[in-house]
Amino acid sequence: MLAGSGTTDGFADITNLSAALNDTAEIALIALPMTLLVVAGQVDLSVASMLGLSSALAGALWDAGWAFEMIVPLCLVVGVLGGLLNGWLVTRVGLPALAVTIGTLTLYRGLASVVLGNKAVSDFPEAYAQWASYTEPVPGTFIPYPIAVFIVLAALAAVVLHCTAAGRALFAIGAQEDAARFAGIRVRRIKLVLFAVTGFMASFAGIVYTLRYGSARADNGLGLELVVIASVLLGGIDFNGGKGTLGGAVAGVLLIGVLNNLLTLNDISSEIQVIVTGVLLVASVLTPRVIALVTERRDRRAAAT
Amino acid sequence: MRPTTRSRPRLLAAAAAVCSLSLALAGCSGTTKGDAKDDAKDKAQGVKADPDAPLKKGLKLAFLPKQINNPYEKIVDEAGIAAAKEYDGKAKEVGPSDAKASSQVGYINTLVQQRQDAILIAANDPNAVCGPLKQAMKQKIKVVSYDSDTDKDCRQLFINQASSEEIGRSLIRRTAEQTGHKGEIAILSATQNATNQNAWIEFMKKELKKPQYKDMKLVKTAYGDDDDQKSFQETQGLLKAYPKLKAIISPTTVGIAAAARYISDSSYKGKVVLNGLGTPNQMRKYIKDGTVEEFSLWDPKKLGYLGSYAAASLASGQITGKEGEKFKAGKLGERTVGKDGEVILGPPTVFDEKNIGKYDF
């Protein structure tokens, strides 16, 4: 970020920072529960589809003349139900999270298309659209409201993960699920709640997305699940579970957001941007392995002498 | 441990509470679509056009296409960039690698940050790009849409290839001649929200209502999403679903090429008429092998050229986007701003076996 403000004209501009931050809003919001899931050795690939379903549902209901104040809670309830379905299939039927959520990824996107078809709904109430836009941040700051919500929730998630028994249970489940179960941790219950919370956040991100772009569509957020997971991995969360910090995940989200903004400001083409993100991701997954390998060798050599 | 183990019922209870509360709220004071919406026009109002103002030197222009590697848009944008050199301006093309409305938004924001003098945009969704474009206009950046329009409150000018009415009606007229004014026809469009496609389809339907087309029937409008593979599959689907289909009209360069590719390798070749909008280089092969008799398009180079000059005239204060204002568009001569800030390039060109050799784009 420092390098960016020094080298790129317009980066350190307050409006640009607000816009760049707000552009990561949905990724950031979903990255929070995703971090908790990955720490517990789980994953949810259906989040972007749930975002799309939530957006499509909001659009269809708005078109049908529903009050916006009713649409939001309804969408959130649908998000929780979708999350519970994922959680139920994982914990009760005993299927791996990856397989289950690849299935529901298709299912929820399909439902979104059924709900709204190929249509786009716009004309959402001005006041709510303003709330989600970067041009009217929280008074006195440059932080847009969706990011303010994210900051509060991130603090909450950090406390839960790092300072509570539930958080320690997540690490235990991720490290060794059977051991966690024998230690008396209610593994199934925790996983179920975790998936429900993820569904809730994905659906909330769907509302934010719809308002931010002023356009409800069934294909909103297509492919976003991979960006979320990439950000989380970039933040040093171990995909095998049991390791990572919430601060790391937040840093991962910000890094990708800032990087994209910087590259765009410098007129780097979008193809190159995708490559840069990819290289960064491979490097981030590789680095700890290399470091581990190097230290292991050194230790062995030290032991030999 | 305890809080999490008990939170499922609690979560549901909370959701139920929120629901009932909002129902109560909605009963008395919900925000619904029916509520009057006051759309504040952010256009520079009170600014007067100075028709004699010279084109400013060193203007910074940015073309934001639907998608960066769309060959058709590349031609338009490159012609616009070349035109900028004629008046000592600096133009560039930036854009997302996918044709999603949300991907364009980030680019608009950064163009505002880079303090461009004008943004030219081919919109993927007329509404999703509106907020940031209004923001750009507030900061005195001129906004010109080309090829595919945004909502008219979100730009000062729209450079239209040809009048939508003329494109729509002439596609039906020409296809009808090829089929002998008889039989079932289908349309293969791009995305369901593409502003230009929908305007043309609307006029196609109006033209079809005329008595001379009473034996023709539009059976389906399919959407290939400007995706080669999907358009190919949709063509296959149309021909399977409607065995009596006499013609397909595809008013999109990606769609018509994909449809031609499918038809040329199938038993439908020579039996089903394919017409629409395409580029000569894409369609040359299918004209030569007889799959397609003719298709039309405007000259995309002229579109980019006109857009570039229109944006420069706006940014130099020669025009403001009001109906009746005139500006000089370089080699193309004088142009007039029409209703709702629309500037029309001219009638489309029809390409067939006789003239296709003369065009290379």
From TrEMBL, chain B:
Higher taxonomy: Bacteria, Bacillati, Actinomycetota, Actinomycetes, Kitasatosporales
Bias (Basic and acidic residues): 34-51
GO biological process, one term: rhamnose transmembrane transport
Recorded GO MF terms: carbohydrate binding
Protein's UniProt name: Rhamnose ABC transporter substrate-binding protein
Chain residue ranges for the region called Disordered: 30-51
Main location: other
Subcellular location as annotated: Cell envelope
GO cellular component, one term: outer membrane-bounded periplasmic space
CDD domains: PBP1_ABC_rhamnose
